[in-house]
């Protein structure tokens, strides 16, 4: 009999519940969904199990407010926290979400000390750093989901512009999950051809600007809450890479020890993800302008770290 895999998803809001449903429907693992609001996670889990009677799955999802239920998790995905409101930057969420992350991370340390922790809560790079500090986990076992999502948005805009499928595009984004993210145009290829041979510089700049504001666009269209279909898809792929030990190359917020000239910081970089979490960080070639944008991005994260006393 194969050993059952277990993912705990903290936060049964938009991202957390959609992620739980993806995991169960894809038969990736059993899920424990935890939320601080009484009945919320339990109600959503029950609804998902009713759905499973229709769609079919051999996996279970249970909802609870009790953190002891996350015991034995292979992966914990942390989505608890407030989302952005229209006109709000991710950084404006800092103090409230830092308080939530401190509380939840200590529960993860207590009940799931062997898990790989995938952070989703914004501001992402900062919250990932904070969660690693509180859990004391090896930094490779804690990483953040954002780059994969930002790359997806970049690919979508390029695919619309070039009328080519997003699946034919290879792209990387480095830097923070903020307006200061740095899509690396020089290494982007479409059907193996360099992007710079397919699109004039001004158009590439337009797509990059559109990528940086994609999340804000969804927020303003929804009027309430922020994106969750694409974020949950990205978190799903990361959890899958860990559980199936895929060594997939994704952009993720990872702990740097000198790569890209940066140290003691969580920031978006291309990385191989497998059973141990971050297995390898890839250093792609950056132009002088991209290097300086990456530095600015890192400076922004360090300023926010100071605000929460880190
Ligand atoms: O790319 C990315 N990393 C992101 C990040 C993409 C999308 C969303 N991003 C951020 O994730 C967003 O800015 C938020 O900080 C989180 C969660 O977004 P979501 O859209 O799921 O927010 P919701 O729907 O408000 O859900 C948050 C849930 C809600 O049900 C709260 O009751 C719960 O979190 N919550 C808690 N659960 C457990 N424990 C505690 N302490 C807690 N506090 C709040």
Mean pLDDT: 96
Give the topology string: H per helix, E per strand. EHEHEEHEHEHEEEEEHHHEEEH
Order of strands across the main sheet: 3-2-1-4-5-6
State the total count of DSSP E strands: 14
State the helical fraction. Answer: 40-55%
| Span of the ends, CA to CA | 46 Å
CATH class value of the largest domain = Alpha Beta
The major β-sheet equals: 6 strands, parallel
Give the helices and strands, then pairings:
Layout: E1 6-10, H1 14-25, E2 30-34, H2 40-55, E3 61-64, E4 75-78, H3 94-111, E5 116-119, H4 124-135, E6 142-144, H5 147-162, E7 169-170, E8 173-174, E9 182-183, E10 189-190, E11 193-194, H6 201-212, H7 214-222, H8 229-243, E12 248-257, E13 263-274, E14 277-281, H9 288-307
Parallel strand pairs: 1-2, 1-4, 2-3, 4-5, 5-6
Antiparallel strand pairs: 7-10, 8-9, 10-11, 12-13, 13-14
Helix pairs in contact: 1-2, 1-8, 3-4, 4-9, 5-6
Bound molecules: 1,4,5,6-tetrahydronicotinamide adenine dinucleotide.
1,4,5,6-tetrahydronicotinamide adenine dinucleotide (TXD) is lined by residues 10-16, 34-37, 40, 79-84, 93, 97, 100, 103-104, 120-122, 124, 145-146, 149, 177, 225-228, 231.
Structure, described:
The chain is α/β, with parallel strands linked by helices and 310 residues long. The protein has two domains: 6-146, Rossmann fold (3-Layer(aba) Sandwich), CATH 3.40.50.720; 147-307, L-2-Hydroxyisocaproate Dehydrogenase, Chain A, domain 2 (Alpha-Beta Complex), CATH 3.90.110. 42% of the residues lie in helices and 20% in strands. It is built from nine helices and 14 strands. It has a six-stranded parallel β-sheet with strand order 3-2-1-4-5-6, with helices on both faces. The protein has a three-stranded antiparallel β-sheet with strand order 7-10-11, with helices on one face. A hairpin with a 2-residue loop joins strand 13 and strand 14 (277-281). Helix 4 crosses helix 9. The longest helix has 20 residues, at 288-307. The chain is globular. It starts with 5 loop residues before the first strand and ends with a helix. 1,4,5,6-tetrahydronicotinamide adenine dinucleotide is lined by residues 10-16, 34-37, 40, 79-84, 93, 97, 100, 103-104, 120-122, 124, 145-146, 149, 177, 225-228, 231. Residues 10-16, 34-37, 40, 79-84, 93, 97, 100, 103-104, 120-122, 124, 145-146, 149, 177, 225-228, 231 line the site of 1,4,5,6-tetrahydronicotinamide adenine dinucleotide (TXD).
């Amino acid at each position: 009999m194969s050993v059952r895999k277990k993912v705990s998803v903290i936060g049964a809001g938009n991202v957390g519940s959609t992620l739980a449903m993806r995991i169960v429907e894809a038969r990736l693992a059993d899920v424990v969904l935890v939320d601080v609001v009484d009945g919320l996670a339990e109600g959503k889990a029950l609804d998902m199990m009713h759905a499973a009677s229709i769609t079919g799955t051999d996996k279970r999802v249970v909802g609870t407010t009790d953190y002891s239920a996350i015991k034995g998790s292979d992966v914990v995905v942390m989505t608890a926290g407030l989302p952005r409101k229209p006109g709000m930057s991710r950084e404006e969420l800092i103090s409230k979400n830092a308080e939530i992350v401190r509380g939840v991370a200590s529960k993860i340390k207590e009940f799931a000390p062997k898990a790989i922790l995938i952070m989703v809560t914004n501001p992402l790079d900062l919250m990932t750093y904070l969660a690693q500090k509180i859990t004391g986990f090896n930094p490779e076992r804690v990483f953040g989901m954002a780059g994969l999502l930002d790359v997806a948005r970049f690919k979508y805009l390029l695919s619309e512009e070039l009328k080519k499928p997003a699946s034919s595009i290879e792209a990387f984004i480095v830097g923070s999950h903020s307006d200061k993210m740095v899509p690396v145009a020089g290494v982007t290829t479409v059907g193996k051809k360099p992007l710079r041979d397919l699109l004039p510089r001004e158009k590439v700049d337009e797509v990059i600007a559109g990528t940086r504001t994609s999340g804000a666009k969804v927020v303003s269209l929804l009027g309430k809450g922020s994106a969750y279909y694409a974020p949950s898809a990205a978190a799903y792929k990361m959890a899958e890479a860990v559980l199936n030990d895929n060594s997939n190359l994704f952009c993720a917020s990872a702990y740097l020890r000198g790569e890209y000239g940066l140290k003691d910081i969580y920031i978006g970089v291309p990385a191989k993800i497998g059973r141990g979490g971050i297995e390898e960080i890839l250093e792609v070639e950056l132009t002088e302008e991209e290097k300086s944008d990456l530095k600015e991005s890192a400076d922004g994260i360090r300023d926010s770290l100071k605000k929460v006393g880190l």
